[in-house]
Amino acid sequence: MAQVSPHKRTPGKRDVCTGWTAGAARRCRDFLMTIDTDRLPPDEIGMALSLTVKDCPLDSDDWSRRRKLLIQRMQRLGATRHHWVTEWQQRGHPHLHLFAFFDLHLAKRVSPFTADADPSDPLIRDELVQHVTKGLSVALTDAWLTLCADLRAGPRSQHVVALYGLRGWMQYVAKHSARGAEHYQRQRHALPQGWQKSGRLWGKGGHWPTVELVYDVDDRTWFRMRRAKRGLMRATARTQLAKGLAFGNVAQARSARRQLAFRGHHGHGDTSADKARSSRLRGVSVFLNPGQARQLLLWAMDHPFARVTVDRLVIDGVETDPAHAPPGLSVPCTPCGRARG
Predict the structure, then answer these.
(1) Among the residues of 150-198, which ranges form H helices?
(2) pLDDT tens, residue by residue, 228-281
(3) Among 3, 206, 279, 283, which has the highest number of CB atoms less than 10 A from its own CB?
């Protein structure tokens, strides 16, 4: 969510990449937030990878070559679509975050116990998925260790896990979409010593179903929805804090306390004119699933002077008639200057 400036910016000519920029971080975030999870094939399982090396690669071309070889091996294991991000550790070495979906019919070959199993059989599907995810975790870790053996990549430094359902997808998106170019793992000065360029820092492959439904709303509706978003995020943080304390999860409790302590950038405690003006333009950079966003917008529209119109609807990169919006996303629009019924 954002208050958009009427100024139309023309993208500049692509140049040599020398680190994360605000535009690159924004494009990565926008892509992640437009993925339509409802249209992802049901016979696919998601795997999230965080991969590191002990020694720094010679340059960005060397790092890119290893990443491309890993993706090729993933595709041979049944990967149908993927998304990756390169970030920097505090010591200046690159590490790779990657998310991929695997076709269960192809990926079952990684485990000898599931080679003849039928994924369409509901009686064995759960057990099959568990075997396949374990096999994929081992196979993907081994593939990275083989590719980066000369960089002394260690097995304990790699994190490969399965993500189940929308909750796992939301955790991945919320983690990587909220990071801007100012995040400490994306600082431009963190470029490894000796690297003249960073190369591409994020990318995607395969067909991703996307949907982008943009609404133009009045200021009052915008502020109401932003306040509701803040209340929802604080309520979620309180729930996480209670669970973290109840089950002794120190990391979860610490993360929840940070969210509760964060006051945002909406001018709290600052009466200066500049801070008040910037508060009106400050957007929202947290992930909400489509159902949550729709409910918040419906609540925010509940005032006499609401004005909500559809700006555009884009499905799989194609401009589409807003009348064909998915039922779970569309909301009743209200013309400017007239009260809602």
Answers:
(1) 165-177
(2) 988 888 898 899 899 999 999 888 888 788 878 865 544 444 556 666 566 666
(3) 279
